[in-house]
# Entry
Amino acid sequence: MSLWLDMPTVLLSLLRQQIHEAGQRFFDGMMANERQELVHRFVDLDENGDGRISVQELLNRYRSLSNGNGNGNGNGGGSEEDDRVRLLFHLVDEDRNGLLDFDECKALFFLFACGRFCVSCAGLIIRDGVSCLHCLSFDLCCYCVHHHRHSHYHYYFQAFPALISSSPQQQ
# Structure
């Protein structure tokens, strides 16, 4: 989890800004009923009704959904899943107050909908990555591909586009 959060403050701020901009474009590109659904999800996540989401409220909801989908682990998400939820939370907590308002949640919903994690280093793949053409769920970041930090029995991979691009003109 610490890979992104250990970045220099300036780079982490830039990454947060890019994720928020992408989240806003994601939200703006939705149909009205889809936007309303995200508003309802936000209200559902807000257990105490204060208009903000805490990491614990997000984890509670995530664990309840994990228990209900038949993933078989019985604990509603293990520590790896909890770490991923915490990582996403902290990446979108732009003002770093430990709470997410609705605008910050737009970025969170974007990451949940579009984000991918490297199976080797477990990091969020922000820039380009690759997926196994056979498995489709075996994703690797470019760093792990380049440094051969994976072992996989299939040999054919397809690149997928960056979650956020390096310049606003490319988005």
In short: The chain has seven helices and five strands. Confidence is low (pLDDT under 50) at residues 68-76, 166-171. The CA atoms of residues 132 and 153 lie 10 Å apart.
